[in-house]
């Protein structure tokens, strides 16, 4: 007879999902595979059958992944911002406006109730601050708040999967030369000088750089928790993804604080980043899978169609504009759209597809702009 303690069963379920996810992710159809993103898909299935994990697991995974990405992408961040900053801002605005127009069309033409359509949009954009803003806009009606939550619950896992597939398929469909695209991404980025001058006088608190990693996570969560009021609209915060990301970029760009060396050994960054993905995908997938079938059966499968349109219209048009109007490199355009639609899993998929973490500096530039945009858009849509 097999007897496993409850805590051990949780660990078993976690790593069973991860193992099966890697198996599924290794399967490629015409050269396209999900990679570690398949863990999310497997977790959806397990979540449907009642497997669940503490919310802290998902949060821990997210901050481990996003902090590691920020540290890796820190060196080229400033140069990237100086070179394409205006284009990124305009792309974020276009993404928010185009998504809003699609949302209005779903309300007016398809007859979907406003709170439900707004929930679909926040789920399609995988934006927790936007979701909170939409709920706040309808706080006087419990029924409307429930509809916002239902729309978000339907589209969050579907929207995530759509964006992961998009960043993987576009380079393949365009026949991109990834070596050339990586070179185009690095072109013009200002890398900090890493000469030996002064480095011998610096010291580390630990050999591999666990201290700066821990400091980035702790300070990032504190930064993300700062709430900035937006008069007449609501409030805004970077949250547990934006705060650690910006702190990681800052520390990764600086490399040292006075005599203190805050670099993190790449041998640590990559495994921590992958572990973070396992925890995040597992937690987010089981959470979404628990409600997905029930919500779709309650509100109808057509909501998924409307939600997919809410994902692909701004995503496709925004990427086309990034290429045709702003002349951004392909990887910059994909990273800008991932940030513009606030989707960390699609950033993870893009990093794997591109073979470089340099794309994270673009994501980090667009991400906070997109968060503010979605908070404001939800308030406007509720009034319209």
Structure description:
The chain has 384 residues and is mostly helical. The protein has one domain: Na+/H+ antiporter like fold. The chain is built from 15 helices and 4 strands. Strand 1 and strand 2 form a beta hairpin. The N and C termini lie far apart (62 Å).
For the structure shown, list the relevant keywords.
4 strands, mainly alpha, two-stranded antiparallel sheet, 384 residues, single chain, Na+/H+ antiporter like fold, two-stranded antiparallel ribbon
How would you classify the helix and strand content by structural class?
Answer: mainly alpha
Number of DSSP helical runs: 15
CATH architecture descriptor name: Up-down Bundle
Gross morphology is globular
Distance between the termini: 62 Å
Our count of domains comes out at 1
What is the helix/strand order? HHHHHHHHHEEHEEHHHHH
Query: Could you describe the largest sheet, including whether it forms a barrel?
Result: 2 strands, antiparallel
Please give the order of strands in the largest beta sheet.
1-2
Gyration radius, in Å: 21 Å
Mean pLDDT: 82
Helix content, binned percent: over 70%
- Annotated CATH topology: Na+/H+ antiporter like fold
Highest CATH level, the class: Mainly Alpha
Multimer state: single chain
Are there runs of 5+ residues with pLDDT below 50, and where?
none
Strand content: under 5%
Q: Strand tally, please?
A: 4
């Amino acid at each position: 007879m097999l007897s496993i303690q409850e805590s051990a069963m949780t660990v078993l379920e976690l790593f069973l999902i991860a193992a099966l996810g890697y198996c599924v992710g290794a399967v490629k159809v015409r050269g396209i595979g999900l990679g570690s993103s398949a863990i999310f898909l497997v977790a959806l299935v397990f979540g449907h059958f009642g497997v669940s994990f503490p919310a802290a697991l998902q949060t821990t995974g997210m901050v481990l992944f996003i902090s590691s990405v920020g540290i890796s992408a820190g060196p080229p961040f400033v140069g990237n911002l100086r070179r394409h900053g205006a284009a990124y801002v305009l792309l974020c605005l276009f993404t928010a406006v185009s998504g809003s127009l699609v949302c209005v069309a779903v309300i007016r033409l398809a007859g979907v109730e406003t709170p439900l359509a707004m929930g679909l949009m926040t789920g399609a954009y995988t934006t927790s601050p936007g979701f909170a803003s939409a709920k706040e806009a309808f706080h006087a009606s419990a029924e409307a708040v429930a509809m916002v939550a239902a729309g978000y619950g339907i589209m969050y896992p579907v929207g995530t999967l759509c964006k992961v597939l998009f960043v993987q398929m576009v380079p393949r469909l365009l026949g991109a030369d990834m070596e050339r695209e990586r070179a185009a991404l690095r072109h013009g980025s200002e890398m900090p000088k890493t000469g030996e001058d002064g480095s011998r006088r610096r010291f580390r608190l630990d050999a591999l750089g666990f201290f700066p990693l821990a400091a980035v996570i702790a300070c990032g969560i504190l930064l993300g928790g700062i709430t900035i009021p937006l008069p007449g609209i609501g409030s805004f915060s970077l949250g547990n993804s934006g705060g650690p990301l910006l702190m990681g970029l800052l520390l990764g760009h600086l490399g040292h604080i006075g005599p203190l060396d805050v670099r993190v050994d790449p041998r640590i960054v990559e495994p921590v980043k992958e572990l973070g993905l396992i925890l995040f995908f597992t937690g987010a997938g089981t959470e979404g899978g628990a409600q997905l079938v029930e919500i779709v059966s309650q509100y109808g499968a057509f909501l998924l169609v409307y939600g997919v349109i809410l994902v692909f219209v701004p995503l496709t048009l925004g990427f086309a504009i990034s290429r045709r109007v702003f002349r951004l490199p392909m990887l910059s355009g994909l990273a800008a759209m991932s940030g513009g639609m606030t989707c960390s899993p699609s950033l993870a998929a893009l990093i794997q597809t591109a073979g470089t973490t340099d794309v994270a500096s673009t994501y980090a530039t667009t991400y906070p702009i997109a968060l503010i945009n979605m908070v404001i858009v939800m308030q406007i849509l509720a009034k319209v």
